[in-house]
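Journal club side-thread
Mid-discussion, someone asked how the predicted structure for our own chain would compare to the paper's figures. Pasting it here so we can look after the session.
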Amino acid sequence: MITNNNVSNWRSVSFSRHGRESVPESPGVYAILRVNRVMGLPLQVEPIYIGKSKNLKSRLGSHLDPAKAHNEHVGSLSERESLEFWCNLMPQDQITVAEKKLIQSLNPRANKIRY
């Protein structure tokens, strides 16, 4: 069961090695989003990928490694400028249910697993 207090704990960082430094080594769910902004205002958001991890910092690092096969969905380096890594810390026993609910609701194009 997902508790309501986890709904508003989302935080975002740039999809970069610099952004990785502010991501905690904690369990949670995450979203890689393409965000189109004008003067900092998010005007359009496209979910690219939804995932879960026991260590969000490490997981972002693995997504940043272009040698990893699972990173084909992330796009070219030029496309990465508009990507953001959003994460929500939660207990490990809640992350699978949260990931499933997010994939069902958002239908991100790069997720191979569909529920």
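Post-session note: The mean pLDDT is 86.
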